[in-house]
Amino acid sequence: MQNELRGMGVALVTPFTVDGAIDFDALKRLVEYQIANGTDYLVVLGTTAETPTLTEQEKQDVIQTVVSVAKGRVPLVLGMGGNNTQQLINTIRHSEFAGIDALLSVTPYYNKPSQEGLYRHYEAVSKASPLPIVLYNVPGRTGVNMQAETTLRLAHDFKNIVAIKEASGNFTQIDDIIKNKPEHFSVISGDDGITYPLITAGAVGVISVIGNAFPREFSRMVRLALAGDYQHALLIHHQFTELIKLLFVEGNPAGVKSMLAAMGFIENRLRLPLVPTTITTYEKIRRVLDQLDIKA
Known about the structure:
alpha/beta
């Protein structure tokens, strides 16, 4: 599983129709677009998918749709986390994972557990999961940072914990994990904007947001950097710097959905409490897209 999570994974958006239903036709097109343009693996029902706004039935329908379209051509990682440990492990134990290759499990949010609480949470998840686990540290959303010491403790103690998606933005912390991790464990960037420097430090790739729109270009940057061609990778990194900033100025996935709508992929629809970007940001995104002259 470690090598299968090398490169660029994409955290898929959930397209909606004008009346707010899931647009499964658009979702199928996006999955095909990703696979045809070099995405190494797909993340289903992550943060970018607006997962908290989906019903349980909708989540199952999204999973089944992506699995049926992907047909095993790329690995699939399923977002499955929570802040009720017992409920989460019960869900894992009673779930069918046909077509799914690994779980991406975010640190418990809102509760603000201690480092020992985080360790014990993931210990329980590890023991319950039949699949490899990717830890997900994103303190800007969860309210708690999983420190390097805790990540390394989990990586050394549980062989089915195979990677971490690190979105803390703390280079010292991430470098500490890369330097001291066991061989079977990988560090994945959780932030498009710092993927290039993290790969130069030893990360194995990214779980990307901008890859929804530009899988071919951004995966090429990742592959060049992983191959040690830092000069050409840096050119692509700089090409997308402004666009990446615009993606997150009004939150994720509002920015990438505006971008995909401007490119003609989806309707620019989100579910409350999220709303589309302002017209000002949307027009800035369109102008940068025109300058890049990259078409769907």
